[in-house]
């Protein structure tokens, strides 16, 4: 609820001297009309946007406050944050201060987090209470290293890593690069190049260029802008190897078929193919065995055929 005072003449204003009491005499001298109580300046903003990790300032302009107190309340949990200049929350990021020149009680929220977004109430201790609401919006920038999550380059070539920060209202104060948790410095002239550029109103790009990298330069690289999360990439510097060899070098080779199984299969195949389809004469010494095995000859031949196919497939798959 916003209360506006009536418009009075200058003479009426001068005739209404110290209505605010001794404690508010300094403020009463600035009144421009008959004192009718505090009211909120209708021009005060009620929507504030801040970037993750920065400081947010929520203004509350109260005219003719006199000796009334001003409180800031977080609406999502009805927690009283401040009363005048006193803080009533354990979170030290919250603080209220008065800018007397503009009659503005400002709530400061340091190092804004996503959970700080929401509605805040500026309340004046009148009867009934007066309230002015301010919505705090928190913008969370996106950060990524352009390209694949793993990069393969040849030793001695040039590597360019780009850390792209978008949806950022403010340019980060710095962008640090780390190689395996150790900060990358720019002191190696001709081998390291670090720079930052601003592209458009909400995009910042950090560059890390490695000249003539060697295998020791392989590892995890991450960029860490001020007040933001980090992004990382894995760099592989190759000295003649192929990327596929590095990716699959530790993979176990397919196990070769058992040698005994191959030998048994070969003997079975030879034996099955050597069995004659005819029944031997009575004088043949192997007549009894052949007669006994005769019904199984087709099965042996099928088994011999299958084992022959397996042996051929193994020979084709074996790179040796």
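-> sequence recovered:
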């Amino acid at each position: 609820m916003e209360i506006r005072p009536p418009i009075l003449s200058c003479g009426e204003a001068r005739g209404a001297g110290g209505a605010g009491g001794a404690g508010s005499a300094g403020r009463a001298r600035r009144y421009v009309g008959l004192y009718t109580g505090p009211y909120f300046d209708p021009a005060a903003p009620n929507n504030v946007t801040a970037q993750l990790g920065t400081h947010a300032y929520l203004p509350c302009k109260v005219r003719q406050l006199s000796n009334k107190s001003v409180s800031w309340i977080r609406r999502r949990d009805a927690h009283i944050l401040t009363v005048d200049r006193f803080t009533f929350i354990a979170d030290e990021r919250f603080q209220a201060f008065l800018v007397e020149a503009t009659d503005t009680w400002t709530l400061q929220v340091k190092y804004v987090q996503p959970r700080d977004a929401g509605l805040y109430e500026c309340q004046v201790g009148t009867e009934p209470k007066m309230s002015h609401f301010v919505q705090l919006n928190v913008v969370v920038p996106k950060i990524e290293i352009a390209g694949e999550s793993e990069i393969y380059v040849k030793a001695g070539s040039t590597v360019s890593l780009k850390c792209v920060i978008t949806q950022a209202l403010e340019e980060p104060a710095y962008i640090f690069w780390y190689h395996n948790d150790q900060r990358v410095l720019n002191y190696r002239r001709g081998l390291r190049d670090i720079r930052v550029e601003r592209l458009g109103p909400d995009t910042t790009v950090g560059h890390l260029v490695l000249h003539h990298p060697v295998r020791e330069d392989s590892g995890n690289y991450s960029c860490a802008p001020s007040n933001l999360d980090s992004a990382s990439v894995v760099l592989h510097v190759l000295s003649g190897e192929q990327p596929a060899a590095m990716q699959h070098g530790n993979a176990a080779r397919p196990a070769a078929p058992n040698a005994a199984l191959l030998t048994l299969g070969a003997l079975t195949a030879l034996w099955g193919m050597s069995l004659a389809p005819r029944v031997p004469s009575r004088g043949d010494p192997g007549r009894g065995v052949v007669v006994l095995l005769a019904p199984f000859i087709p099965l042996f031949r099928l088994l011999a055929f299958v084992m022959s196919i397996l042996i051929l497939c193994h020979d084709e798959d074996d790179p040796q």
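The domain at 142-238 is CATH 2.60.40.10 (Immunoglobulin-like).
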